[in-house]
TrEMBL record, chains A, B:
Catalyzes the deamination of adenosine to inosine at the wobble position 34 of tRNA(Arg2). This is tRNA-specific adenosine deaminase. Zn(2+) binds at H52, C82, C85. Its cofactor is Zn(2+). It holds the Pfam family MafB19-deam. Belongs to the cytidine and deoxycytidylate deaminase family. ADAT2 subfamily. Residues 1-111 form the CMP/dCMP-type deaminase domain. It comes from Odoribacter laneus YIT 12061. Its EC number is 3.5.4.33. Keywords: Hydrolase, Metal-binding, tRNA processing, Zinc.
């Protein structure tokens, strides 16, 4: 239940991205049940490929905590993270990753050997339909 | 020859990192033979796992060029990029990657399917001994 609650807030962030013409991906990071970071994709606004929602939120969360590791945190993201973001999640030794829609083309799950830290707990498919619909709708309107 | 010239400057950046107690990795980005970005690892100073030299330099280079793609650029890095940085290099559609020392444990080359953009030209082993010695020396002094 709480996974869905936080994923709804990540979806709100993704909707902000869509309004700004960004690929709609949103992220929320919690630590011991408290929200410490929220962000959405800003690659177009900043003209910077590194400005994915996960990257921005990880930087925010480590600033909030005053340390580089997120082993007591949960990161909620509407779309399965890409190679870059999974690499950052690994370095942060994230406690738990919860994502919405899968991304078979760009997602980190394709990669081998596995890229996440072995202790990171992963749950996929939370509000999957809503998360993937948001991305599909965005690209349909772009065409 | 010019690869070595630019790699020497990346090594200077790596040496700055070492002086600051950071894992010594340095990066230089050139566009049409002109240096447009240089950076070194700042993960300790910023307490941010995303602050690898490559990530900082990619953000700097896209700001300098006013666009997100680095297809006409060459990125020189003293150490083979990690998963995160390789993912960023792929999104940036980098023209050419030149690295010094290999990183069999953390480097992107372990990963399959390949993570870089198919058009990115890759050259490894430029000033390899100096690049790897800098990292080895750093960890020896840390112990």
């Amino acid at each position: 239940m709480s996974h869905e609650l936080f994923m709804r807030k990540a979806l709100e962030e993704a909707a902000f991205a869509a309004e700004e013409g960004e690929i709609p991906v949103g992220v929320l990071i919690t630590c011991k049940g408290k929200i410490i970071a929220r962000a959405h994709n800003q690659t177009e606004r900043l003209q910077d490929v590194t400005a994915h929602a996960e990257m921005i939120a990880i930087t925010m969360a480590t600033a909030a905590l005053g340390g580089k590791y997120l082993n007591e945190c949960t990161l909620y993201v509407t779309l399965e993270p890409c190679t870059m973001c999974a690499g950052a999640i690994a370095w942060a030794q994230l406690g738990e990753l919860v994502y919405g829609a899968s991304d078979p083309q760009r997602g980190y799950k394709r990669l081998s050997p596995p890229v996440l830290h072995p202790r990171t707990k992963v749950t996929g498919g939370i509000l999957e339909t809503e998360c993937s619909q948001l991305v599909k709708k965005f690209f349909q309107e772009k065409r």
